[in-house]
Amino acid sequence: GNSVTQMEGPVTLSEEAFLTINCTYTATGYPSLFWYVQYPGEGLQLLLKATKADDKGSNKGFEATYRKETTSFHLEKGSVQVSDSAVYFCALIRSAGGTSYGKLTFGQGTILTVHP
Amino acid sequence: DGGITQSPKYLFRKEGQNVTLSCEQNLNHDAMYWYRQDPGQGLRLIYYSQIVNDFQKGDIAEGYSVSREKKESFPLTVTSAQKNPTAFYLCASSIGRGYSYEQYFGPGTRLTVT
Known about the structure:
Order of helices and strands of chain A: EEEEEEEEEEEE
Structural class of chain B: mainly beta
Distance between the termini of chain A: 41 Å
Oligomer: heterodimer
Shape of chain A: globular
Order of helices and strands of chain B: EEEEEEEEEEE
Structural class of chain A: mainly beta
C-alpha cells in the first residue's frame, strides 16, 4: 500500500537557519504530493503541492521538489522565522483501483521549533 | 469567506455516551472526509463521502458512524463502541473526485472522554 515516511523530530533551529525536513514515499503509479502545516491548536493548511515528477512546489519561502527517482519530496526553507514553528506533514494522494477519490496518506508529522 | 466550520472546538463526554461532531462547509465541495489525529501520529481516515447520500469507510471506521444528507454537512458520531475515542478530529473537503485535488481542513474538535 501507500506510505509516507518523514524525518523524526522534533527539529529545533535558530531564526534565519536553513531548514530541511525529509520526506520519502511508497506508492504505485504517479501520486500527487503535498506538504501541510499545522499551527498549535489548529487544523491543517496546505503549504505546497506537486503533481508530477520534477515539479517544484513553493509557498511562503518554502520549497519542495517531486523526485521520482528517489521517491522523495523534501521540504526546504532558506531562512526560518519564529512564526514557522508548527507541525509539518508530508502527504500523498493516489487513486485506489478503479475509484478515484482523494484519499490522503500522511506521514507522522515533524515538529519544528524556531528560537529567536 | 468560504471555509469549513467544526463545532465545538472542545468536547467532553463520559464513557459510554455517544457524541456527534459537527462539520459544515460552504465551499460547494462534493467530497468530505473525517480524520483522527493522535499525538505523534499522522492523520488517519475514518470515513469519506464523495456525494450526498453516499459514504465509505476509511482505515479506522470501527466505532464511528456518519451521514451525508446535505452537501454542506457531514456529521460524525463517535459511538460507545469506539474503544479509545479521546483524540483530535479533523474534517476536510475537496472539490470532488480526482487524485490531484487538495483537501481543505477545518479547525478541528478535540474530544476528551473520561
